[in-house]
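Now for a typical sample entry:
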Amino acid sequence: MTLDDLQRQLGHRFADASLLRQALTHRSHGQPNNERLEFLGDSVLNCVVAAMLYRHFGRIDEGDLSRLRANLVKQQSLYEIAQRLGLSQHLLLGEGELKSGGFRRPSILGDTLEAIVGAVFLDAGFEAAQSVIVALYEPVLRTVDPKTLGKDAKTLLQEYLQGKKLPLPVYAVVATHGAAHSQVFEVECSIPKLKIQVLGSGASRRAAEQAAARGALDAAQALVPATGRRTRARAERTEAAERGARGARAAGAPAGAGKPEGATEPHSGAHGDDAGRDEASGLGPLPASLEESRPARAA
């Protein structure tokens, strides 16, 4: 892929081609390199991404907007966009970086993308840089879940359980392996109410807790929705039965039909005014079972 192809992908053709070359030049290759352009591009990128989030997510507060922006401009996100553009094919690296695979390094590719933004800004101004950034980030924004992006597994698990009114998980270190300088921790995450116990391992206690929380969240999500579906099914059956009862009354079913021998008609009096309100609302009277459970009001 040529530099012309890269400029087509960016949607910007440089009036000063030397700016693009500088943006692609790592410090290991010599001077001028892209470090100062990276500094400039970082600021422009943060500004434009913040504006995009502000317009795209109109109901999200400042704290969540900051969390989203931080995750969209972090090294991994920049690296993924740089990979999409094929920047590794255009990097100018020193011999040492070439031998060590610098063209694949996320930090180098992410920094280069920021430098390109800075170069576009110097070449044609803020609006040109904004157009490039918007084109690069629009596909990303379409897949963003503002509720989860940037939250770690422990936070997501805690929020999920709180939303279901379930007790919080319990974490416990169950084992450690290896020498002191390269230990592996095993942590159990348990949710007693759901009878879930999941093990996670990692190079630190925190990493192991996150791994265990991720597994526990998957297990909890697999269990709880099934309960929710059963509850909804019961509610739907009850609602259907009540609709059928109202339909039978509207069709003129004989008074007292289907009642046990000796049963009496509901009388007006304590609830007479309530029945009038029911009829006026167009909803019809309450089913007998619900009418009888309605508390009487004092005279």
